[in-house]
Design a protein that fits this description.
alpha+beta, OB fold (Dihydrolipoamide Acetyltransferase, E2P), 3 domains, five-stranded antiparallel β-sheet, five-stranded mixed β-barrel, elongated
């Protein structure tokens, strides 16, 4: 199997003496593993959530940690091997694709990860390189990596040139947080259109609306075979609408697809957010000025993790 080398340079006081602190090394490896897997999922099907992940998709997100070398004061290089997608994603590349924005055959997990990092650093609110779940993983680099004595990670290899590598620091994690808090909440929707195609390899599908707008979806149901009979017919999809930080629709996570009924034509429009994502920093600024936790009672969404809430609290210091 063809594999290419990627290097990740670790900078920071966690690198000392003859090596690196075990807690920092473990944090870097586990955070990279989760983020690489998520960015590969998004690259192929615009969804970082687990769902039904095919074997080839899992393999595409896997990399091998090959070696480590201390190269200077507070500096260590981690060596990884990664398969190019044409080696592990033959199912995907052997069938017609719904859209022309999939990853290149010569790409690896690190390459698409680098693309997502670049969009976060640029603050691209309309990016297709991440979803809200992946932004959460990126934000956790602050507590899982950069709080462990790591100042920066520098990545290069394959199509990421050494002369222009990918830099990950607190600026990256903070940028992910800022995009995350701007992202509207997913909302339950029903949308009607013509089922243009289903990708068996990714469980992705496309709905074409009367104005020829295409809506991307991911099938989350279990009965996939019966859907083949619906291709090129008018259907209604029900599920969660997932949005970009800009508020533009990213995808539909559909758990039901059925032939259209007369009343379904009312739903032949692109879903829009029903409300903005809660900006934790704005809420906490109000709480800080009013003095007291009562000012934010009942306002913090249940899905916010302790890390995300505490990170926002830290902004008030």
């Amino acid at each position: 199997m063809k594999m290419v080398e990627h290097k990740v340079v670790v900078h920071g006081p966690a690198v000392r003496g003859a090596g690196v602190m075990p807690s920092a090394a473990g944090a870097v490896l586990s955070s990279l593993e989760r983020s690489l897997r998520g960015t590969v999922d998004v690259a192929f099907r615009r969804s970082s959530s687990a769902g039904r992940r095919m074997k080839w998709l899992r393999r595409a997100g896997e990399v091998e940690f090959a070696d480590a070398e201390r190269t200077g004061k507070n500096e260590m290089v981690l060596y990884f091997k990664a398969s190019t997608f044409d080696e592990v994603a033959t199912e995907y590349y052997s069938e017609p694709t719904l859209f022309d924005d999939g990853p290149a055959k010569s790409d690896t997990a690190f390459d698409v990860f680098s693309d997502a990092v670049a969009d976060v650093l640029a603050g691209r609110a309309d990016s297709d390189k991440y979803d809200v779940g992946l932004l959460k993983r990126f934000h956790r680099f602050n507590t899982s990596v950069f709080d462990e004595g790591v100042d920066e990670l520098v990545v290069w290899g394959n199509r990421i040139p050494k002369s222009d590598p990918t830099h990950l620091s607190r600026r990256f994690a903070d940028g992910a947080r800022d995009l995350y808090v701007r992202t509207p909440e997913p909302s339950r929707v029903r949308i009607a259109g013509r089922l243009d195609m289903i990708e068996a390899s990714t469980m992705a599908f496309a709905l074409v609306l009367p104005g020829n707008e295409k809506v991307r979806g991911v099938w989350k149901g279990n009965d996939f075979e019966t859907l083949r009979a619906l291709v090129n017919s008018d259907v209604a999809a029900s599920g969660l609408a997932v949005f970009r930080p800009s508020g533009v629709l990213l995808r539909i996570d559909a758990d039901a697809l059925a032939p259209q009924r007369d009343g379904d034509r009312f739903f032949a429009t692109v879903p829009v957010p029903t409300g903005a994502k809660l900006d934790l920093k704005a809420v906490l600024r109000e709480q800080h000025s009013r003095g007291g936790m009562g000012a934010i009672g009942g306002m913090i969404p249940a899905e916010e993790s302790d890390d995300e809430f505490l990170a926002a609290v830290a902004e008030m210091d």
